[in-house]
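seq:
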Amino acid sequence: MGMATVSDITFATGKGNGVPGLDPSTAYSSRLSARSALYTDLQLLLADRPEALPVEEYRSLVVDENCLTRSSTSARRKLWGELRKRYLLDRRQPLFEAFFREWRRSASEPERGLTAYALLALNDRLVADLGTQWLWGNLRRAPAELRVLEVLDFIKRAAGNDHPEVMGWTEDTQLHIAQHYLASVRDFGLARGKARKVSVRPALYGAPVRFLIRALRLMRTVDLDLVMSPIFRLLALDGIEVIDALGELNRQGELRFRMQGDVIELEVGGLE
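struct:
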């Protein structure tokens, strides 16, 4: 039997469609061809705000108040469009609300970086698939060299399988996506290096794990399937390692987890 994929688990157990990275019907997007993850801009925009804002207020901060210090109105509008596509930026969006809750609970920059990476992946099917089918193996072998050509090969193979939309992308578009993807991975703390990038296996933190749990519950995934979901490969966790990680986070007080046979008690705190 082949290795399970995110689509296998979600298609079998999830009935919602509010999380693009978990929805097997979601097409690949070429949004990373223009710019990388823009993580530094996201950090500045969210700053230490105590509450998530509606989309109109985030837009005003970027375009009208120029909180990200761009030189022209057109540059600010373009930046806003790119940030919105990557991170939703609207408290009325359940996925963003779940993200912001865990962003605020994060106790360190590496924890925030992984939580933001999870949001980018959950909102972008290509990033999710790269993370769970290609990058995760390199994270487990860290330090492993991350090559643009391998990302390009993944994208080209997708065009011949489940994502014919990729066939409409130019060679330059595919190259830029691959380059910006690896730059984004580095920005989130999963790689180091500039011209030559090598993987960095992430430490275990509560916020990104809780966020993935919240996202799976938005898809109405039952807990027994939830703990086996391949989406945890975003954090270099797979199979029994997810259960072990949940047990460790339970001991740290980051969440509540108990499993006896097929019975699971799992609470991440706050509104779920």
